[in-house]
From TrEMBL, chain A:
<comment type="similarity">
    <text>Belongs to the binding-protein-dependent transport system permease family.</text>
</comment>
<keyword id="KW-1133">Transmembrane helix</keyword>
<dbReference type="GO" id="GO:0005886">
    <property type="term" value="C:plasma membrane"/>
</dbReference>
<protein>
    <submittedName>
        <fullName>Sugar ABC transporter permease</fullName>
    </submittedName>
</protein>
<dbReference type="Pfam" id="PF00528">
    <property type="entry name" value="BPD_transp_1"/>
</dbReference>
<dbReference type="InterPro" id="IPR035906">
    <property type="entry name" value="MetI-like_sf"/>
</dbReference>
<keyword id="KW-0472">Membrane</keyword>
TrEMBL record, chain B:
<comment type="similarity">
    <text>Belongs to the binding-protein-dependent transport system permease family.</text>
</comment>
<dbReference type="InterPro" id="IPR035906">
    <property type="entry name" value="MetI-like_sf"/>
</dbReference>
<keyword id="KW-1003">Cell membrane</keyword>
<keyword id="KW-0812">Transmembrane</keyword>
<dbReference type="InterPro" id="IPR050901">
    <property type="entry name" value="BP-dep_ABC_trans_perm"/>
</dbReference>
<dbReference type="GO" id="GO:0005886">
    <property type="term" value="C:plasma membrane"/>
</dbReference>
<feature type="transmembrane region" description="Helical">
    <location>
        <begin position="109"/>
        <end position="133"/>
    </location>
</feature>
From TrEMBL, chain C:
<feature type="region of interest" description="Disordered">
    <location>
        <begin position="391"/>
        <end position="412"/>
    </location>
</feature>
<dbReference type="Pfam" id="PF01547">
    <property type="entry name" value="SBP_bac_1"/>
</dbReference>
<keyword id="KW-0732">Signal</keyword>
<dbReference type="GO" id="GO:0042956">
    <property type="term" value="P:maltodextrin transmembrane transport"/>
</dbReference>
<dbReference type="GO" id="GO:0055052">
    <property type="term" value="C:ATP-binding cassette (ABC) transporter complex, substrate-binding subunit-containing"/>
</dbReference>
<dbReference type="GO" id="GO:1901982">
    <property type="term" value="F:maltose binding"/>
</dbReference>
<dbReference type="GO" id="GO:0015768">
    <property type="term" value="P:maltose transport"/>
</dbReference>
């Protein structure tokens, strides 16, 4: 899902706004404005807190128990034992590894592909541009589950056309069972994920491209810079902020991958990802305590990633702000 | 760029690149459409196109055995997504106005919260919600899905809308206030007309997100009372328990993709601007 | 709070039912949770509603397609003391879990006696927990050995008259360069296969299925467990399961069997109806049907009887139902031999009551009806434990893909994983 494009820019924007002061004595008008601000923004704020903060606290509380839904009488407080079980289990670490692998490959490929798509759309002929825009929005808007089914059936040995179309490639034959082993299963999962979410990243990059000052490009051209040199020296540095924001949110999004794995492999061939591990413990096994522990750990992973990103790229966000 | 200057060759290359993009975007969609027109035994023909094009799969889900399952799921999906979209856009409009326009402490807190909610792993809150919903009777009901959907749609609505609102020429509002209008009147008479396109775009994007949900759908419903389409796909069955419902799934997938395609065709320019607004221009 | 929720839910169900049918207000409505089928259970609900003549009305509500997903949903709802669940179509392996948790209403002794009369033993065993019948046997499934007569002949086998072993099938498939139809997908189908192999070799997956979680003992590290692993290894290592073995389910196995390289296949009787339907639709040739033979499930060792897989559906009664008595009555109506025969003919799902097999229509539709009955009598249920989900998933995780299975490591791996999971020391 692509819920998240504008946030980092927004946060830094608000931080640097310097308008929400309060050091000078407030006039009545300022006080009224404050009140109105909270009246207007309050409901949204409260709703957001209710639907997330409460459940995650509840999940943390439940993760301290040994609790199986079909055996409520045996519920027992076990301190942090569930976390010990999860963190000492190779299955958890393997799921983390697979999730990181999928995330890194997906985001890396998407960054390149998305940039290429953005360049094409940016420079495309005026006649072509609306058509391209419409086409590119379809993968973005399509239901992830539908995309997963489409890719699954295309590669499936029982119903897919991929084997018969590409059997001239080395390693692919009529008998290639894509969902029979780890590498090929992950390949299809990643392909579906990339297809569905690259448009989002490319639209963000397109917005970034539009921000690169045209006169800088022209100046570089006059100086005799080649196309590649201009790309590296002018275009990319000038849209660093857009790139970082896009990467941050795609990374977090890819790390939470669930639908594709659920539809295609159900975790077979070691393709289990962290979200799916949590789902299996709570929903399939009905082990609420253990599953809650996995959920809380997944949440902490996501927090850690965002923290790293924001710490690492703080400078860029600030410089992006300077342009405004 | 002045297109008149382009040589024939360069133009041709642009067309090639453009067509490559279109093929990329539409190919999997074409495949699922083709699949939905295959007969059960044709599904195994390992070809892209059906040998005979048949409407059987659509008959099955729209008027046949699977119609109860599919049509109720479709109704749920449409209803729940629309209501969730409406609520989140209303809440977000107020919030975004305040953020873009007013001075008040906690602005940053709200934006940070929205950020945190947006990156929240859905799976982490499904179990506690499931337990809570059971206890208060929201399990397997429309509100039981609408409320969690807000966690998906509200953050993006707030950002997209704040980005839109920042571009509005607020001098007009000030002018209106100078003319004696209250903040509220200025908002309603001057800003609302200017903001409507942004609100509308935000609504479309929110709708896509609610429409896309799968995890809440499979975890918080159990009957036709609230089960949305993505979750219902797991309920289709072939002619018997062990036969694959590939055809029915493909047909249902096509049906739920149609509204999305229509929205995209009608509003592509707006959606693109909505998605790109905040990112850099913030 | 809970009580109010429950009554609100009940009232809603009632209201919907009334609005839908607009009939007499005093008629209680029973909700029957059914697994997806070809419309047969809906029809049975209608028939029994009619037969009840106003005593009750049965409505159906659909469960997911996968057995494990059905269990998830039922367990979650029943854990919430859902009173809207009156009758439940249950896959046998999950019955102990629900019974142990107290989610299933007791079935009175006289009813138990009546509904088990003439019922095949496998179905009775599958519906029993701690020596008490906890569900009403409805239909019972079993796998047969399906074979292409031409291939069997060429390989010098006559499965119809002489029981065959897995070893013979492997040799035959190898010499004829054909594929064996088995289910290697990481799903319940794989557990079904492993269980049948272990049971046919004279062993059991669990030694003490009724024990509490931390005391369950596995029986895989035995000759039987190793024999089962050996068969899977032989098939997978030699590529005899076909290229798609690692995710081949019942449907995939059938498609392969119908193709050029089909030879022998273990599968449920749905394949017969599905193949006939394919011929009718013009996608398959009549000559294929003429070439198909059937026999009892293959044995592991020569001279020993095989224990075919057992499946099907039994009807549980929701413990929190407000009309338990009526629900039991309704379940008895659903499972009459006539209704079972109807269900078998129209939906292809074999009856658990032997009387149904005397029905002329059954005999006509299923030329192998008597063999199915025979197979059901010999069938071995999967381990009956409240922790079946853990056992089955643990088995699937360690015995998949089939090409990784070896007699030396796989039984041990499964034993270690499942034991630790049941002790709460590991994730699954």
């Amino acid at each position: 899902m692509s819920t998240t494009q504008a946030a980092a820019g927004e946060v830094s924007g608000a931080a640097g706004d310097g308008r929400d002061g309060g050091r000078v004595p407030l006039s009545d008008r300022a006080r009224a404005e404050r009140r109105l601000g909270w009246w207007l923004a309050g409901p949204a704020f409260v709703v957001m807190l209710l639907v997330t903060a409460y459940p995650i606290l509840q999940a943390f509380y439940e993760s301290l128990f040994k609790y199986r839904l079909t055996d409520p009488d045996a519920r027992e407080f076990t301190w942090l034992n569930n976390y010990v079980v999860v963190l000492s289990d190779s299955i958890w670490w393997r799921a983390v590894g697979v999730t990181v692998l999928i995330t890194v490959i997906t985001v890396a490929v998407e960054a390149v592909l998305g940039f290429a798509l953005a360049l094409v759309m940016h420079r495309a002929l005026t006649t072509l541009r609306p058509i391209l825009r419409t086409a590119i929005l379809i993968p973005y808007a399509i239901i992830t589950v539908v995309s997963a089914f489409a890719w699954f059936y295309a590669f499936s040995i029982d119903s897919g056309f991929v084997n018969s179309w590409f059997n001239w490639l080395p390693g692919i034959s009529e008998d290639t069972n894509w969902f029979g082993e780890f590498g090929t299963s992950v390949f299809v999962i990643i392909a579906s994920e990339i297809w569905k979410t690259t448009p989002f990243i490319s639209l963000l990059l397109l917005a970034g491209l539009a921000q690169v000052p045209e006169d800088l490009q022209e100046a570089a051209k006059v100086d005799g810079a080649t196309w590649w040199q201009r790309l590296y020296k002018v275009t990319i540095p000038n849209m660093k902020a857009a790139i970082m924001v896009a990467l941050l949110f795609r990374t977090l999004d890819a790390f939470r991958i669930f639908d594709n794995v659920f539809i295609m492999t159900q975790g077979a061939n070691n393709t289990e990802v962290v979200s799916f591990l949590a789902y299996r413990q709570t929903i399939s096994r009905l082990e609420i305590g253990l599953g809650s522990a996995v959920s809380v750990l997944l949440f902490l992973c996501v927090v850690l990633i965002s923290f790293l990103f924001i710490k690492l790229f703080k400078v860029d966000l600030a410089s992006a702000r300077g342009e405004r | 760029m002045d297109e008149g200057q382009l040589s024939r060759g360069t133009k041709a290359w642009w067309w090639v690149a453009g067509i490559a993009v279109i093929v990329y975007a539409l190919f999997p969609v074409a495949w699922i459409v083709s699949l939905s027109f295959k007969t059960p035994s044709d599904l195994a023909n390992l070809q892209f196109l059906p040998t005979n094009w048949v409407w059987d799969n659509y008959d099955n889900i729209l008027v046949g055995d699977a119609q109860n399952l599919f049509l109720s799921a479709l109704r749920n999906s449409v209803g729940i997504s629309l209501i969730a979209t409406f609520i989140s856009v209303v809440l977000a409009t107020f919030a975004a106005y305040a953020i873009a326009r007013l001075d008040f402490p906690g602005k940053r807190l709200i934006l940070t919260t929205a950020l945190a909610v947006a990156i929240f792993p859905v799976i982490s809150i499904v179990t506690p919600l499931f337990n809570l919903w059971r206890n208060i009777g929201l399990y397997d009901t429309w509100p039981g899905l609408i409320i969690p959907y807000l966690s998906l749609t509200l953050p993006i609505s707030i950002w997209t809308l704040s980005a839109f609102f920042r571009q509005i020429p607020w001098e007009l509002e000030q002018a209106a206030q100078v003319d004696g209008a209250t903040t509220w009147q200025a908002f309603r008479k001057v800003i609302v007309p200017l903001a409507t396109p942004g609100v509308f775009t935000t609504a479309i994007i929110s709708f896509f997100i609610a429409w896309n949900d799968f995890v809440y759908g499979i975890s918080l419903t159990s009957t036709e009372a609230a089960r949305p389409v993505p979750a219902a796909l797991a309920f289709f069955t072939g002619a018997s328990q062990f036969e694959e419902p590939t055809g029915a799934i493909a047909a249902a997938a096509v049906v739920v993709t149609i509204p999305v395609v229509i929205l995209v065709l009608l509003f592509q320019r707006r959606i693109v601007s909505g998605l790109t607004q905040g990112a850099v221009k913030g | 709070m809970r009580r109010r929720t429950v009554s609100v839910a009940a009232a809603t169900v009632l209201l919907t039912a009334l609005a839908a049918c607009g009939s007499d207000e005093t008629t209680p409505t029973l909700t029957w949770y059914i697994n997806p089928d070809n419309g047969g259970q809906v029809e049975l609900a209608r028939r029994c509603t009619e037969a009840a003549d106003g005593a009750y009305r049965i409505e159906t509500s659909l469960l997911p397609r996968e057995a494990s997903a059905q269990r998830e949903q039922l367990a979650r709802r029943l854990a919430a003391n859902d009173s809207s669940i009156d009758i439940i179509s249950l896959d046998p392996p999950f019955i102990p879990e629900l019974a142990e948790a107290g989610f299933l209403a007791e079935i009175p002794d006289d009813v138990a006696e009546a509904v088990t009369e003439n019922v095949v033993q496998g179905a009775i065993d599958g519906a029993t927990w701690r020596d008490q019948l906890v569900a009403v046997p409805f239909w019972a499934n079993t796998q047969l050995l399906w074979y292409r007569k031409s291939v069997a002949q060429a390989a010098g086998l006559d499965p119809e008259n002489e029981p065959v072993t897995w070893e013979q099938l492997i040799a035959a498939a190898q010499s004829q360069d054909k594929y064996l139809g088995v289910q290697g997908i990481r799903a319940e189908a794989l557990t079904v296969w492993i269980n049948a192999l272990v049971a046919s070799a004279g062993g059991e997956i669990l030694d003490n299925p009724e024990a509490p979680a931390d005391q369950v003992q596995l029986g895989l590290e035995s000759d039987a467990g190793q024999a089962a692993a050996q068969i899977i290894e032989d098939i997978a290592r030699n590529g005899l399961g076909g290229p798609g073995l690692a995710n081949q389910d019942e449907n995939g196995a059938m498609l392969q069997f119908q193709g050029d390289r089909g030879s022998f296949m273990v599968n449920w009787p749905f394949v017969w109806a599905a193949t006939l339907a394919g011929v009718e639709a013009g996608n398959l040739d009549q000559s294929l049907v003429d070439d198909i033979g059937w026999a009892l499930y293959p044995a592991v060792a020569e001279g020993e009887e095989s224990r075919p897989p057992y499946g099907g559906i039994s009807l549980g009664i929701g413990a929190f139902s407000e009309h338990t008595d009526l629900a039991i009555e309704a379940a008895q109506c659903i499972v009459t031999p006539e209704n079972q025969a109807y269900y078998m003919v129209t939906n292809g799902n074999p009856a658990s009551n032997t009387e149904a097999y005397d029905d002329p229509e059954v005999q006509e539709t299923f030329p192998m009806a008597d063999l199915i009955r025979e197979s059901l009598e010999a069938a071995a249920p999967r381990p009956q434990t409240p922790y079946y989900n853990e056992v089955s998933t643990g088995l699937q995780n360690t015995w998949h893909p089939p090409s990784s299975v070896t007699p030396d490591s796989s039984p041990e791996d499964a034993t270690t994983l499942i034991t630790e999971v049941l002790k709460g020391e590991r994730l699954l």
